[in-house]
Amino acid sequence: YLVRYMFVSLMGNKHAVRILDFMICNAPRHFSKSEMIAAMDMGRPSFYKAWKMLEELGMVKAIDSEKNFRYYVLNKENGIVKTILKLHVQLHRE
Q: Which runs of E-coded beta strand occur in 1-94?
């Protein structure tokens, strides 16, 4: 992704925004990709395209693995995630 268009690429991607919202609203729980896809009723291709962007930006991280499943959470140490969490809190105050 070009840095110049990163904001539009991230915030204009409704699937990425839905994934972020799902993970924020369900924190501190962790989920596998399959669980998220099912819970959000999102198509796999749409999910994986958006997920790739979130991984490249370091916004999500794997925390645990069991058998064939890997579980993920938001990377709260990531500067973009910190900003989005602040925005999320502020929006819920208004």
A: 60-66, 69-74
Q: What is the widest separation between alpha-carbon atoms in the chain?
A: 43
DSSP 68: T
Q: What is the mean pLDDT of the chain?
A: 87
CA dist 12 and 66 (Å) reads 33
For residue 48, give the H/E element and its range.
helix 44-56
Element (H, E) at 30: none
Extract the tokens encoding 73: 């959470």
Tens of pLDDT along 43-71? 999 999 999 999 999 999 998 777 777 89
- What's the CA gap between 20 and 74, in Å, rounded? 8
